[in-house]
What we know:
Two copies of one chain form a homodimer.
Chain A: E1 3-9, E2 23-28, E3 31-37, H1 41-47, E4 55-59, H2 71-80, E5 87-91, H3 95-105, E6 114-118, E7 126-129, E8 133-139, E9 147-153, E10 159-160, H4 164-168, H5 175-179, E11 184-185, E12 191-192, H6 194-197, E13 198-199, E14 206-210, H7 220-223, E15 228-232, H8 240-246, H9 251-260, E16 266-269, H10 279-288, E17 292-294, E18 300-302
Parallel strand pairs in A: 3-4, 4-5, 5-6, 14-15, 15-16, 16-17
Antiparallel strand pairs in A: 1-2, 1-18, 2-3, 7-8, 8-9, 9-14, 10-13, 11-12
Helix pairs in contact in A: 9-10
Amino acid sequence: VKFExxxxxxxxxxxxxxxxxxxxxxxxxxxxxxxxxxEGTQMRLTDFHIPRNRINFLFVSHLHGDHIFGLxxxxxxxxxxxRTQAFTIxxxxxxAEILEVTLRIxxxxxxxxxxxxxxxxxxxKAIFENEILTVYTIxxxxxxxTCGFLFKEKPLLPNFIKEKISEYNIPVAQIPLIKxxxxxxxxxxxxxxxxxxxxxxxxxxxxxxxxxxxxFPEIVPHIEDVDILYHEATFTTEQLENAAFGxxxxxxxAAQIALAAKVKMLVIGHxxxxxxxxxxxxxxxxxxxxxxxxxLDGTTFSVPYRR
Amino acid sequence: VKFExxxxxxxxxxxxxxxxxxxxxxxxxxxxxxxxxxEGTQMRLTDFHIPRNRINFLFVSHLHGDHIFGLxxxxxxxxxxxRTQAFTIxxxxxxAEILEVTLRIxxxxxxxxxxxxxxxxxxxKAIFENEILTVYTIxxxxxxxTCGFLFKEKPLLPNFIKEKISEYNIPVAQIPLIKxxxxxxxxxxxxxxxxxxxxxxxxxxxxxxxxxxxxFPEIVPHIEDVDILYHEATFTTEQLENAAFGxxxxxxxAAQIALAAKVKMLVIGHxxxxxxxxxxxxxxxxxxxxxxxxxLDGTTFSVPYRR
Lengths: 307, 307
């Protein structure tokens, strides 16, 4: 059962060295979610064999161009292949106006319903919920209203131990109740406790996306223990002044956040065009937080169930 | 002295098979001009080593997304490297509104003056002129207001034959006048005709861009004898109905236009996503017009001076 993050673009601000602007997709139990949609995202979906038409939700962290300029092109391309499934966007105030004006003037007609929900980037709250997960906003600190997103699987039901059916003569109709927590009472009135009939479910998995932001330890309580933390690391410490000026983070700062939040894995990205590759930021982050990885374009990170 | 067309994107409507949406650059005598600016154009400039900051003019044929969705990203990237040189756009009515809304809401601040001139797509007239060339609109027939562009070098001055200086004792100060057409009168009153002192200049070179359009023979008088005709060929004849429905051309129709206009070279592109490569459209066009080439992403076509 999948929980897989794929990086579509790892560049900050402007594409460079083959890195495209920010976009990521998350596959949770075969449901696809997109986060941010920089220019060229639709090409990246093709490059990395992501099933474009199975993506129904987009979460937008903020409205800087390198996080949204691929959106209208992706939507119009979806229309060209006759998409009918609704597409739903959660984004800070303003995106709908860009979409409305651009679609109208370019005379692009969408073949599917488009829903745009305005999110409040200053609150930590649940903004989306379905049968498998809840998505929460994470207020970040950047030069425009910005929030991250926490994707958290819902608790799974425990696994019923099949061998117990014959052992206690349990009617099949009872199994769902037992999985939901009921004990089993057999014919002679003996109570077989729920805990003897099931194996606890693996803990739910989680992913936190934190970009763009300066070093902002207030996010730590919201991202504690996540399986994957994606945190921007636009610069190395050598560029501390540039990081502060642009309200971005250094690799060390990203790693400090990961350490404080005791996350299981840190993925860094949003790499400045001044770096030809990801070596400098990765080496720096790993000094503070060992299980750091570079989230370069096309990289996939999987989270297995942990027992 | 260069006259070079480079194709940045050869896809119709939606990127496919590594083909990006429409954009081209023209290098005339080391001045760079861009035509259309589909999504990903800024990446293509990097891919094909085009000096982005030497492009000062963009000509937009029409406002369909696959011809303009790379523009805001390219402009903001130019700002990120501190461009100060003005950027001037010629486009049909409406583009300025998309730019204004998108730049404002994404809080993108350009570091250079941006000028947007509205063009009338229904007239054939000169819209741009400088010391080396004139650019004319070419009305096309598409589902939204659309025009092509004719880029025509200005006539060059004839070459002065250096050996004539000593032969007739010509003062150096006279040479510019002779190049401009004056005869030379020597000390004893003999008239040395201009034609004896100069070699005629090579004929000016020209490029016509015709996309998007259905088969529209009315354009022929505007593009006669051009060195390179770029004409869209979205489909093969097999897809004649689709071509008519989308107001696009087939490869045969593009070739018929080239033949009627007696152009020296036809470049076809704007290839539908239904074709994995350019073989079908190219083979079809070459049956009608032999000197046809596929304008795939990254291809460059040069026009030498012809004597």
